[in-house]
């Protein structure tokens, strides 16, 4: 039995329990806006997720970093960097970059898509597992910006005018957007829908 | 659930209903739409940027990396190496290049591709910047209208870009000397071009060099222009002193080619592109009158040719007309004898004949002229050039007393009759004398002489024993006779006196006879009347 079924709902900010209403009401304790569910949560999640998936393509194809030293200009994509580190004898670093920059975003987008599809079409998945998955992507989200941080750090550090300049490529922007969008999509997904949907489907 | 468990849940306060936000939930779909637009624009941009993909074959992929190596034209990136494969036959590498849209025009037939890497060439050091930046692929855009996607890369960068104005000439050389691709071409010591390439002719006898002369200078190359090796140092010591001649320090080290028109008449017609010029060994031989065509002659000597070497000069009264090309031995079936056959190359053009007939052009004319010369006594002769080493040379000269020879007109090359050499003549005469001497029966003469001597010996012995004493006696008797004779002839000898008296008497008788004849003459009657006394 869920809170909604009991005719109750909780304030998302302070946890105050109140009577279930359809429209948005002000929390009697903290004054925050309380709704039984996040409005248009699923469509928002879908939109943000789709945007992230679209942007993921240029994030991988466009160079993430442009290094210009005295004579050489090289543009490195994420995959190129992974391959470079792997061949130059740093498989650990290569694995780290691979997992953080490729594996985690893909994983995140997949999980989000599974959750959204579950809610959308009422797939009979185990609700507890779904919630675990949701917690995983929430936790992991803050780490997937590692690439962007590295690039930002390098751009700040290596800037000897005329000798060597590292600049963030368009891929970095796309990649940053992907990470931000997945975080936003995660945020806009209302996990309470997981509990609603099977019931709705069953009911 | 707590709400279910608690018996009297606190009634929640009356909620304050908030006004609904004026926000359309579907507005969120603007974001993916924008992203899709952005992605689409990227795709369109990438497709627009994409030029033709071409394949270039190189001998080796040294310095080329797929995804890293760029294609540059005038230091502007016009493409990337996307793939690198071994050609199926494993002799070459296949480099796949994606050109940019703007570089579409490079995918034409006569474009040339090469790998720019550091290299030392005749023109100097090039591609040094690639030491740090890595090699790239250089390109020289062609002007052809025919599109092409497959190219064979050059192993050495072209010396001259195809858009450089100027003309190319072909130099024919015996050997390359110290020249190389990129060696400079000098005109009055100004570097005006480069050697672009060289190729050995299939027969292996000569070498064709392609020389490029830059635009303002190419008009100085006329049909009469002479080219020569300007490599190295020309150091000579002559009556004028020590002379050092070199084009430039670079040419001294790396070699080069120089050209000049001997007459200095720039107005002469400019040489057409790809005109062939002979590349002379040095300046002097380049400006020498051209040899013209070699005229081979066959000489059959009936003597040894020991001391005659290939390349030995053919001399005509001190002028070097040519040289010996080959010496062979021929078997003559008729005489069953071996004769050395010497083939010589003669350059008749080396003779600057004053008031000569126009140069014979056809073989027939030449033939006729040779026949005429032979009729006037032209012969070849072997002469000793160096008495110490016995080096021989071939001399051509007129021997009016030489026995007439009929020239075989069909022989190709024609055979010039020979006369024995001076030395040979002397040798022959000595040989003839010796042969005659050989016929003298010296043995028999000796034996006869010996017998005669013996006989003489015996005779002498007999003379000693028999003749000499007799001789001595005879001599004694002779002396006695002589003495008696002397005595008889002496003044007071009786014989002498008798003779004198006899003569006196004879004189008296003669006188009386005279008197008689006188008186008879005067008085002939006295003979009858007797003598009368004078009155
Ligand atoms: Zn509250």
From TrEMBL, chain B:
Identify one Pfam family in the record.
Answer: MlaD
**Basic and acidic residues composition-biased segments:** 515-535
UniProt entry tagged with the keyword Cytoplasm: no
Domain Mce/MlaD per the UniProt entry, residue ranges: 51-141, 166-226, 294-398
Transmembrane stretches, start-end = 26-47
Q: Which UniProt keywords apply?
A: Cell inner membrane, Cell membrane, Membrane, Transmembrane, Transmembrane helix
- Residue numbers spanned by region Disordered: 514-535
Q: Where in the cell is it found?
A: Cell inner membrane
GO cellular-component term (any): plasma membrane
PANTHER family associated with the record: INTERMEMBRANE TRANSPORT PROTEIN PQIB-RELATED (PTHR30462), INTERMEMBRANE TRANSPORT PROTEIN YEBT (PTHR30462:SF0)
Task: Output this protein's name.
Answer: Paraquat-inducible protein B
Instruction: Give the organism the record lists.
Output: Paramagnetospirillum magneticum (strain ATCC 700264 / AMB-1)
């Amino acid at each position: 039995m869920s809170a909604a079924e009991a005719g109750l709902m909780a304030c998302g900010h302070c946890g105050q329990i109140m009577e279930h209403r359809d429209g948005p009401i002000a929390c009697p304790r903290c004054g925050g806006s309380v709704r039984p569910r996040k409005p248009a949560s699923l469509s928002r999640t879908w939109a943000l997720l789709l945007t992230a998936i679209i942007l993921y393509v240029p994030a991988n194809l466009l160079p993430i970093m442009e290094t210009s030293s005295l004579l050489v200009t090289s543009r490195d994509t994420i995959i190129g960097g992974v391959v470079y580190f792997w061949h130059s004898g740093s498989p650990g670093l290569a694995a780290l970059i691979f997992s953080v920059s490729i594996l985690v975003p893909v994983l995140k987008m997949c999980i989000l898509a599974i959750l959204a599809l579950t809610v959308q079409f009422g797939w009979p998945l185990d609700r507890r597992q779904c919630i675990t998955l949701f917690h995983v992507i929430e936790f992991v989200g803050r780490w997937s910006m590692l690439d962007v941080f590295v690039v930002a750090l390098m751009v700040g550090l290596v800037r000897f005018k005329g000798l060597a300049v590292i600049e963030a490529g368009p891929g970095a922007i796309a990649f940053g957007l992907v990470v931000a969008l997945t975080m936003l999509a995660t945020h806009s997904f209302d996990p309470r829908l997981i509990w609603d949907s099977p019931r709705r489907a069953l009911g | 659930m707590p709400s279910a468990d608690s018996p009297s849940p606190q009634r929640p306060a009356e909620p304050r209903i908030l006004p609904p936000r004026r926000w359309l939930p579907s507005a969120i779909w603007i974001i993916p739409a924008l992203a899709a637009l952005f992605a689409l624009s990227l795709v369109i941009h990438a497709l627009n940027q994409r030029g033709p993909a071409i394949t270039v074959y190189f001998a080796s992929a040294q310095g080329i990396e797929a995804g890293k190596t760029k294609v540059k034209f005038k230091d502007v990136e016009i493409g990337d190496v996307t793939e690198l494969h071994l050609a199926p036959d494993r002799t070459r590498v296949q480099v796949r290049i994606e050109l940019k849209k703007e570089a579409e025009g490079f995918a034409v037939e006569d474009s040339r591709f090469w790998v720019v890497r550091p290299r030392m060439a005749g023109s100097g050091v090039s591609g040094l910047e690639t030491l740090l930046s890595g090699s790239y692929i250089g390109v020289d855009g062609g002007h052809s209208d025919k599109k092409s996607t497959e190219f064979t890369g050059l192993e050495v960068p072209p010396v001259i870009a195809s858009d450089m104005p100027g003309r190319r000439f072909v130099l024919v050389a015996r050997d390359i000397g110290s020249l190389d691709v990129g060696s400079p071409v000098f005109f009055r010591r100004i570097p005006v071009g480069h050697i672009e390439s060289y190729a050995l002719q299939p027969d292996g006898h000569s070498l064709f060099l392609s020389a490029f002369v830059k635009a303002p200078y190419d008009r100085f190359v006329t049909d009469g222009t002479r080219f020569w090796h300007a490599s190295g140092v020309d150091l000579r010591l002559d009556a004028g002193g020590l002379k050092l001649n070199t084009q430039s320090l670079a040419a001294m080290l790396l070699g080069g080619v120089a050209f000049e028109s001997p007459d200095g008449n720039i107005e002469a017609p400019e040489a057409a592109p790809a005109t062939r010029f002979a590349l002379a060994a040095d300046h002097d031989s380049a400006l020498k009158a051209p040899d013209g065509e070699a005229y081979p002659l066959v000489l059959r000597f009936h003597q040894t040719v020991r001391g005659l070497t290939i390349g030995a000069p053919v001399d005509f009264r001190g002028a070097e007309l040519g040289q010996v090309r080959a010496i062979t031995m021929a078997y003559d079936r008729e005489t069953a004898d071996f004769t050395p056959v010497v083939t010589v190359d003669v350059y008749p053009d080396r003779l600057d004949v004053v008031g000569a007939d126009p140069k014979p052009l056809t073989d027939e004319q030449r033939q006729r002229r040779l026949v005429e010369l032979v009729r006037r006594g032209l012969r070849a002769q072997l002469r000793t050039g160096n008495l110490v080493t016995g080096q021989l040379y071939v001399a051509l000269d007129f021997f009016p007393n030489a026995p007439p020879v009929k020239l075989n007109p069909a022989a190709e090359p024609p055979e010039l009759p020979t006369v024995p050499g001076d030395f040979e003549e002397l040798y022959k005469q000595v040989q003839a004398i010796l042969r005659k001497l050989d016929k003298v029966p010296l043995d028999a003469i000796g034996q006869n002489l010996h017998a005669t001597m013996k006989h003489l010996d015996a005779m002498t012995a007999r003379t000693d024993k028999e003749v000499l004493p007799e001789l001595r006696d005879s001599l004694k008797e002779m002396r006695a006779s002589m003495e008696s004779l002397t005595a008889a002839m002496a003044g007071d000898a009786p014989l002498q006196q008798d003779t004198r008296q006899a003569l006196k008497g004879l004189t008296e008788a003669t006188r009386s006879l005279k008197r008689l004849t006188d008186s008879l003459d005067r008085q002939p009657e006295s003979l009858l009347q007797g003598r009368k006394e004078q009155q």
